């Protein structure tokens, strides 16, 4: 049996997907979680084979959750998303995610991807992969993207600095660099710009 953890903040999607996967003879859904923090705790407790994680969850998003799970548990991680932007795919792959597919895929496809990933292979939806190859690369450094991500909900410079273990001055320097590179006037504009392009 392949033991599966599901994390999605949308109750209907999470419970429906869990019910459909439970119909598969070789899959056992061991946990259903509403957010990344709960998924991380349950993954440590239950040690599933595959974690199926929604990209957009409150608190820790799917990619951050996957990165943390992989540091603590030998589980494979698959990201599912409604908005499959190429920049997010690159971030997911660099975080060690094993699978990436849109929520528009039928449950049979999701089950097949879980089996692929559990067998040690990687799976990336072909359309998303093609888009990623043709998409513009971010001109921002990883650290600059970290700063935008950490401040995406309007956090103060001090809060961003604390979250990233940087000084407030270093955060301000990164923000200034981001605004200069993108030709924008505010951190909020830069965050929106980066989100629209899938960089964060």
UniProtKB/TrEMBL annotation:
Highest taxon, organism lineage: Bacteria
Stored SMART domains: HTH_LUXR (SM00421), REC (SM00448)
Domain HTH luxR-type: 133-198
Keywords: DNA-binding, Phosphoprotein
Phosphoprotein listed as a keyword: yes
Signal sequence, start to end: none
Keyword Lyase belongs to the record: no
Pfam families: GerE, Response_reg
InterPro entries registered for this protein in UniProt: CheY-like_superfamily, Sig_transdc_resp-reg_C-effctor, Sig_transdc_resp-reg_receiver, Tscrpt_reg_LuxR_C, WalR-like
4-aspartylphosphate found at: 54
Domain Response regulatory: 3-118
PANTHER family (alphabetical): TRANSCRIPTIONAL REGULATORY PROTEIN DESR (PTHR43214:SF42), TWO-COMPONENT RESPONSE REGULATOR (PTHR43214)
Name of this chain's protein: Response regulator transcription factor
Annotated source species: Microbacterium phycohabitans
